[in-house]
């Protein structure tokens, strides 16, 4: 078993502590994420998944329970050290672009952490190459598409060579093409390094890419499991306000029409394979 | 209209002026503003005029483009010229028509002030046209750095400036979007009395402010996550490098000042 990298124990967080009748945004949640894993945290709006992200990098501290990162309890003292080991990409591509140009923005986290100039230039170059943005080094943010801006945000996040990449709804404001760009970069990064990826999303297509899914509902941990296990719940997911992946939807509708198919399909490929061979199986 | 304006715009290029250190350019412009006031005769103003044209040549910015972009200023210059022409009453009368009397001194003053105005506007425009806003910010930070001793938050000011500059296009896009959205709902911003038009701006400004605050909050979070904790212990990705050419350009100013002082009356 790989070593633990993030561990939440009985974490509870309420935004308005004074008012007792409001349910906590995160309610008694515990889970452990291991090094090198890709974990998706899914849930509809208000399920507490973004609050979880903020708890994991010390933007918020829990009222009850502990957040342990790299084996240490997150507190005011090790906060900055922890953050430098954890890259984070947010939802809105425009609102996280600090620098005037692509390379300035990628350098921002390096500048903050006092990396010497020569090393900085090298790392900026490398990070931009990793996200395939080398030809946009000097571009200004308003000349980039949403997907390109998110790729720059990833470059900025990985420039410090963190052990964890935290994606907080990073693809939800992008068009399908932009989303594909961003996800393929994340996949590539995972192949090249031992990066732990935590993606917070309400898009189950994106969650399919993960090794493990943590489902949140009303601030509580609803289910944990591999994508296969989670998607077997079918209708339950729809009731919780999540969109099923396209292939799964088609497969369900086909079965409703009385067309015999082997099982649930999660990817388009599986569905197509089942469809074109279904005639032979009769 | 905004596309034609050249104030604060940067035109990429690789001329001698483009390659100068932004600090040198800033110092140059400030000193030049002071030196311009030495001039007080035909020869000295002539020298200034020629000097300015040499700088324009060196920046490789097309003269037509420059003048065209500065049209609003040219109108202002003509207006100042006319004011001086009409209201200065010294020297001999060189032209008289009904109640308008034009004096020799008026013509002289008018031309001098116009040249002064013109060279100042041209040179400051060349500064912004040939320097990226980010370099200007960096240069300002470097030049103001000694003031840190007196507790002036130089780093914070420079960061504020560069973030504002970075968000101008974003907010412009946003304004455009909100304007179209309000127009689609039947708001009319282009006709009516001044008061009506002012009122039509309110539903434009409020959503803009709300979204700007939202952006600011998001940006602050993103900066914190990326380890921003003030200017202490920060390294810099952009380095300003002072080269020989920067010293040379400042020396030409000294030469200019000496020439002007010599020919001064």
From TrEMBL, chain A:
Subcellular location per UniProt equals: Cell membrane
GO CC, one annotated term: ATP-binding cassette (ABC) transporter complex
Domain ABC transporter residues, every copy? 6-243
Gene3D superfamilies in the record, alphabetically? P-loop containing nucleotide triphosphate hydrolases (3.40.50.300)
Q: Which UniProt keywords apply?
A: ATP-binding, Cell membrane, Membrane, Nucleotide-binding, Translocase, Transport
Q: What is the membrane topology listed in the Swiss-Prot or TrEMBL record? A: Peripheral membrane protein
Look up the domain of life of the source.
Answer: Bacteria
Q: Which SUPFAM superfamilies match?
A: P-loop containing nucleoside triphosphate hydrolases (SSF52540)
Please provide, alphabetically and separated by semicolons, the GO molecular function terms listed in this UniProt record.
ATP binding; ATP hydrolysis activity; ATPase-coupled transmembrane transporter activity; cobalt ion transmembrane transporter activity
A Pfam family reported for this protein in Swiss-Prot or TrEMBL: ABC_tran
Listed InterPro entries: AAA+_ATPase, ABC_transporter-like_ATP-bd, ABC_transporter-like_CS, ABC_transpr_CbiO/EcfA_su, ECF_ABC_transporter_ATP-bd, EcfA_1, P-loop_NTPase
Q: Which PANTHER family match?
A: ENERGY-COUPLING FACTOR TRANSPORTER ATP-BINDING PROTEIN ECFA1 (PTHR43553:SF24), HEAVY METAL TRANSPORTER (PTHR43553)
Per the similarity annotation, which family is this? Belongs to the ABC transporter superfamily.
**NCBIfam families under this entry?**
ECF_ATPase_1, PRK13635.1, PRK13648.1
The name under which this protein is listed is Energy-coupling factor transport system ATP-binding protein
Species, as recorded: Psychrobacillus insolitus
UniProtKB/TrEMBL annotation, chain B:
An annotated Gene Ontology molecular function: transmembrane transporter activity
Identify the GO cellular component terms for this protein: plasma membrane
Q: Which UniProt keywords apply?
A: Cell membrane, Membrane, Transmembrane, Transmembrane helix, Transport
Would you indicate the residue range of the signal peptide? Answer: none
The answer to keyword Cell membrane applying to this record is: yes
DNA-binding keyword on record: no
Topology relative to the membrane: Multi-pass membrane protein
Cite the Pfam families for this sequence: CbiQ
Question: Where does this polypeptide localize?
Answer: Cell membrane
Annotated InterPro entries: ABC/ECF_trnsptr_transmembrane (IPR003339), EcfT (IPR024919)
* Regions that span the bilayer: 26-56, 63-87, 107-129, 242-263
The record's function comment reads: Transmembrane (T) component of an energy-coupling factor (ECF) ABC-transporter complex. Unlike classic ABC transporters this ECF transporter provides the energy necessary to transport a number of different substrates.
Q: Which family does it belong to?
A: Belongs to the energy-coupling factor EcfT family.
Quaternary structure annotation from Swiss-Prot or TrEMBL: Forms a stable energy-coupling factor (ECF) transporter complex composed of 2 membrane-embedded substrate-binding proteins (S component), 2 ATP-binding proteins (A component) and 2 transmembrane proteins (T component).
Name of the protein described by the UniProt record: Energy-coupling factor transporter transmembrane protein EcfT
Q: Which organism is it from?
A: Psychrobacillus insolitus
